[in-house]
Design a protein that fits this description.
single chain, 330 residues, alpha+beta, Uridine Diphospho-n-acetylenolpyruvylglucosamine Reductase, domain 3, binds flavin-adenine dinucleotide
């Protein structure tokens, strides 16, 4: 599990980083906090000719109020900064909760927002050592034409297991992508492809630079819950993020419910929004919303825990997340 050989580059500006990536045409990779990428390198899941560290790009490390009253977060902001930020706690609590659920404090100390959103998809047949993987033919994600998780599977359903993205989708976030020929801002929902082989839309030369969250008005509550093998530290096996805005009468004005770790990208449940808006929360409404989320989640047998158990737990996590949100603990 030694590191492969590669050139290590430290660009001093975002534009320089983009140029190097573009020239590398897929053979140069970004290293942010390195908490996920170093493991992937050691497992030879990636064998880039060069790696660029974005650590020196301090201009990408900030959490600020935007001119429209929303929040902007630089890609190099650490998860530790996120979980301790009063700006995040005040109106975007679901994001702070999700950050707190990532790994353990030493990981959050260096892990970045950009790295979390650009996390590669994972599968129990893929995230293994090179030696282990060699016992089987290459799967779709390794450039082959077979899926080991699903018998006769025709595409890669490796799972996006980042905790932040469901919370950010629930908050209606957008991302700013910078490339050699300019920049663009797209909704985070459009950042993910739904394809396990290539989970996001970044092309060689692109760097995710910033997350932009719309303003949060008063009475907005959030909740994030996840299932994991080790409560102390683990990737989500299923996750639920919810953002709810109530009016003066206690009825729900806006609601967004998003599932994580059950598909190659975060999965929004619009049926939950339809059920919740205009209503006051009751046990039977909560039950119906949880059922809609269960119906939408279709995890397959590609993580360490049984897929049907993960699916059943979606129902439980929805109730917990909404309960957390409306209790004000969000
Ligand atoms: C033991 C352990 C437990 C973990 N638990 C969790 C968990 O519970 N939840 C969770 O979500 N994650 C977990 N992780 C994964 C990881 O620590 C986090 O997702 C972290 O936020 C990744 O950020 P990073 O800065 O370290 O990214 P890196 O490892 O540096 O990069 C991750 C990927 O993103 C790309 N990348 C990074 N920044 C950018 C950018 N700005 N633009 C374009 N591409 C970029 C890299 O090229 C790489 O492919 C865990 C990891 C470990 C080792």
């Amino acid at each position: 599990m030694q590191l492969p050989r590669f050139d290590f580059l430290q660009p001093r500006s975002l534009q320089e980083a983009c140029s190097i990536l573009r020239e590398g045409n897929g053979k140069v990779s970004v290293l942010a906090g390195g908490t996920a990428f170093m493991v992937a390198l050691r497992s030879r899941l990636h064998t880039p000719s060069a790696v660029i560290s974005t650590k020196a790009l301090s201009e990408l490390s900030y959490i600020r109020e935007a001119s429209d009253g929303g929040l902007v977060i630089g890609a190099m902001t650490t998860l530790e900064a996120l979980e301790n930020s009063p700006l995040v706690a005040n109106g975007y609590a679901v994001l702070g909760q999700a950050a707190r659920f990532v790994g353990v404090p030493p990981i959050r100390h260096v892990a970045t927002v950009g790295g979390n959103l650009c996390l590669d998809t994972r599968c129990i047949f893929y995230n293994q050592s090179e030696f282990w993987r060699k016992a089987r033919p290459d799967c779709f994600k390794l450039g082959g034409d077979v899926c080991h998780a699903i018998d006769k599977g025709r595409r890669c359903l490796a799972v996006y297991q980042g905790d932040l993205a469901p919370a950010l989708v629930a908050l209606g976030a957008r991302v700013r992508i910078v490339g050699v020929s300019g920049e663009k801002v797209i909704p985070l929902t459009q950042f993910y492809t739904g394809n396990g082989e290539k989970p996001n839309v970044l092309e060689p030369g692109d760097i995710l630079a910033e997350v932009q969250i719309p303003p949060s008005s008063g009475n907005t509550w959030g909740g994030y819950e996840k299932l994991r093998v080790r409560e102390g530290m683990d990737f989500p096996l299923a996750g639920v993020a919810v953002s709810i805005k109530t009016n003066a009468n206690g009825a729900i004005d806006q609601a967004r419910l998003v599932l994580g770790a059950v598909a190659p990208s975060p999965l929004e449940v619009p049926e939950a929004t339809e059920l919740l808006v205009g209503q006051k929360l009751t046990d039977s409404l909560l039950e119906s919303v949880a059922q809609k989320a269960y119906d939408r989640a279709r995890p397959v047998a590609n993580l360490a825990v049984d897929a049907s158990y993960r699916r059943k737990m979606v129902r439980v996590l929805v109730k917990r997340a909404i309960g957390r949100a409306v209790s004000g603990n969000g």
